[in-house]
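User: For my dataset I need records formatted as: sequence, then structure tokens, nothing else. Please produce one.
Assistant:
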Amino acid sequence: MPVRIQRYIALLSVVLFGGKMLAWWLTGSVTVLTDALEGIVNVVAGFLGLFSVVMSARPRDTNHPYGHGKVEFISSAVEGTLIIVAGLLIIYEAIHQLMTPHTIQHLDIGLMIVTGAGALNFAAGKYAVRQGKKLHSMVLESAGSHLLSDAYSTIAVVVGVGLLLITNGKYPWLDSAVALVFAVVTIVTGYRVLRKSLSGMMDEMDMGTLAKVIDLLQKNRKAQWVDLHNLRVIHYGELLHIDAHLTLPWYQKVEDADREIHALETLIQSHFSNRVELFIHIDSCMHYQCRLCSMQDCPERKEPFAEQLEWNTENVWADAKHGKG
């Protein structure tokens, strides 16, 4: 599914780029040219994204034991960089136009072409973001965000060209002024895409997903799940890796502990589907954790139960058992 959607995005980017270049050729407007330069980024990013979703869908092998999902972060990083470069090129062209103005013509036709391209970008971007979140594909989300940003920027282009059309080109500096505003928006968008991809490369904790996992476990917590700590959530493309230490009663048999691990895995997978890979380490409970343990029939209790520690993002990521001290 992500491959098919990304293929359509790549093909659409080629068509829209051709339309924008035609609009620039007809009008000679630097504002329209900036939109066309963004189209070049869309084409490169579209096909790069297609390559990355094909690669990330490959199963893990001996050379890539965690799968190929991180290629999506690389793709997004390149896309973010290209967006920033496009913004810098727009600034250069806008300043050049201010210094050496030239005649702008056929603004009505150019305006219609740019408006149509913006509408298509908006529709495709909304669909890509929605499907990216549904399918947990960073590439589709990034591509959709980029298309939406392009569509919003096109509004500025339409305004700029519209002003030129209304004033019959009496104020040519408006063309460059709108282009400069467009450039700033483009650079900010590129920075956000680049920042998110670099976070993924560095295995930055996804606090939003972590909070969802913790909330799910807390609401469905079993009494024998004495403690949970060293919980980490890392994205590898659409695959979610979850590591955790689960504390169980020290006297349980291996068979019982194995059953509890499978219960926890089933719970998480029922919420996040089959895109989850879990690594659960079992710890045995300690006497100082008795006051946090809500098991009513524990034959080895050393201290009376006081209160159960509620798991949250502040206390489950640390690599230490709770209850000591």
